[in-house]
Amino acid sequence: MIRDVRVFRWASVLAFLMCFSAVSFAADIVATTSNGSTVILHDNGRWEYYQNNAKIRDVRPDAIPEDAKFQITVLYESIDKLKKDTRMMLEGEFATEEEIRDSLRKLPKGGIVYFQVPTKQIKPGFVRELVYSIYDKGKKPVFSQRSRDSEATPSESHGVSNLMVAPLYAKPKSKVLKAKVLSESARQTLEFEIPVR
Description:
Blueprint: H1 2-24, E1 28-32, E2 38-42, E3 47-49, E4 73-77, H2 79-92, H3 97-105, E5 111-118, E6 129-135, E7 143-148, E8 153-154, E9 160-168, E10 176-183, E11 188-195
Antiparallel strand pairs: 1-2, 2-3, 4-5, 5-9, 6-7, 6-10, 8-9, 10-11
Helix pairs in contact: 2-3
């Protein structure tokens, strides 16, 4: 009987060592945390949530299908550039100085922020509704508006469309504006920092 227990112990230890050695040489280990989440432990010390866990969405860049990727850029035009461009355009149309001054008074004092996307990424039938927000100082946005990407307008650049043109009616107080693009349906937020010149 004692001999059977010793053989059983050695067999258990051997089985444990074989499992341990197989796990220790594997590149990734799938584990469950104390709160029940499933994670992948990588051999380089990094970890991430396991993609097949129903509670967690896989947000790794390689897990997102190509047709679902959306590359938004932000362009800022200062009031000085807007005034220069408007004056040049109106002078080319032989406008009077009074008409030019009147047009310059109507420009937004803080400039304009353009949220842009390559036109080829706008797909008919696959409409995204996005909320565009711009923050100066503080947590309250100085601009916030909801729009669909199907409402995008062509920009002056070839192959680029303006998803949103955001006028800033007050001069920015900070040197860097913060912008957010929120997709409520996909639960995604893109954040940008916009240097103000």
